[in-house]
Amino acid sequence: MSVLEVLSVAIATSFFAMGIASLFGIPLAYILARKEFFGKRIVGSVVDLPIIKFFDAVPGIVVAMLFVSTPFLINPVRD
Fold first, then answer.
1. How many angstroms separate the CA atoms of 48 and 71, rounded?
2. Tell me: the pLDDT tens digits for 20-57?
3. CA torsion 48→54→56→23, rounded to 10°?
């Protein structure tokens, strides 16, 4: 892969991951901050799980970016 291909994949997947994280992360953060429900602590723990590894695949890159970046979105919004 050339440098430009790597950069374009990184930028495209980061925008895709940001869109997914925003679409699901902000409502989840709101629910975690405002509502009480059974399993709330489990859901909060799942948010902070480590990365699942996928190699050499765009969906894997997006999933890895989501697992890394989603806690940084949900935790501040929840607070």
1. 6
2. 888 988 999 899 899 999 999 888 887 776 546 556 67
3. -50
